[in-house]
Amino acid sequence: MKKYTQHQKPADGDERKLNSPVICYPNDTLKIPYWDNYQKAREELTKVDEIIIPPRDAKCFEVKAGYFFRIESIDGPQVGDLNLFNANNYKEKFYSGKTRALHGTHLSLKDQMWSSFPYMRPLATITYDSLDWYGFDKDGGSVHDVIGTRCDPYTNNLISNNQYHFCCHSNLTRALVNERNLQKEEAENLVHDVLNVFMCTGFTLDTHQYFMKASPVRPGDFLEFFAEVDLLGVLSACPGGDCSSEHSSDTAKCYPLKISVFKTTSKVLDSWTSPLVSNYNQLHGL
Predict the structure, then answer these.
(1) What is the DSSP letter of 168?
(2) Distances (CA, A) of 103 to 8, 106, 135, 155, 235
(3) pLDDT tens digits, one per residue of 197-230
C-alpha cells in the first residue's frame, strides 16, 4: 500500500519519477480474423440451452466451439464470477493475470479471455456488452474486471474469523463437485481467478487498494461471448449482490443470473476453426 517509508527521498528523487511509462504487452498485433463474421453470425442466433444460477450458488454450463453464450441480469442488479475451461482438458483454463496484462483491468467488446500456459490461446471473445457505455467513472471504476480474484472463505476467515461457505470460491468448487463428479480437493484446485461479470471495481486513487461499488447492471443487460473452443463454464451469483456494500455474507440482496447458449444459423463461420495453442517450443533454454 506504500503507506510507510523508512528512507528520505534522494536528491534526484523527483527526476527519477519523470520517466514515461511503457506498455508491457502491446496488443496491436493481436488480431481477431473473423471479428466481422462474429458480428454477422450473432444476428442469426437460435437458443439451444438456458441455465438459471440461483443467488449465492453456482452452476456449470457447456458451450460448443463456434457457439455464443450470454450472461444476463434478470431480476435485479447482480454480479457474477466466471471460470472457463477447455471442456476436453481442464488443465487449460482461463488465465486472468495474462488477460489483464494484454487487455487491461476491465474487459469489454472485442477483448478475449486467454488460457493458461502452455496453451495460451483465446478461450472466448466478447462480442457484445450492453454496459460498454460505462467506461471508467470519476473513481477509476469500471465493470467486468480481471483484477479481483473472487470472494473466498480463506480471506474472509483471515479478516473476520467467520466460517462462511457461500463465497464465490466455494460456490464454484461445489458446482464442480456436484455437476462434474470431482473430488472436493480436485475441484478446488481447478477453481481459478475469475472474470467478475457486471462487478464495478477499481483501485483507490490514494492507496491504490481494490474497491467495489454498486454495479450499474440492470435486468436485461448482458455480456455475450463467442466460444473459441469447446468450453466448460462455471458461474457463481456472488453473495455480494450488486456489491454496493459487502460480500462474503448473507446480508446483501441477491438475484439470480441467466446463462443462454446460442447456435448461429448463419453460414459466415463455416470456414472458421478454433485457434491453435501457442507454438512456443517449450525448450526454456534447457
Answers:
(1) H
(2) 36, 8, 14, 27, 22
(3) 999 999 999 999 999 999 999 999 999 999 999 9
Q: Are 56 and 164 in contact (CB under 8 A)?
A: no
Q: What is the pLDDT of residues 138-190, one digit of tens each?
A: 999 999 999 999 999 999 999 999 999 999 999 999 999 999 999 999 999 99
In the block, cell 478454433 appears at 274
Beta strands 222-227; 231-237: pairing state: unpaired
DSSP per-residue string spanning 118-145: TT--EEEEEEEETTTT----TTS-EEEE
**How far apart are the C-alpha atoms of 286 and 284, rounded to whole Å?**
6
* Domains of the chain, residue spans: 47-264
Phi and psi at residue 57, to the nearest 5°: -150, 175
Q: Which pTM was predicted?
A: 0.97
Q: Mapping DSSP to helix (H, G, I), strand (E, B) and coil, where does residue 171 land?
A: helix
**Distance in angstroms (rounded) separating the CA atoms of residues 104 and 139:** 17
Angle (CA) 84-101-123 rounded to 5° is 25
Indicate the helix (H) or strand (E) that contains 158.
helix 153-160
If one counts every other C-beta atom within 10 angstroms of the C-beta of residue 108, the result is 18
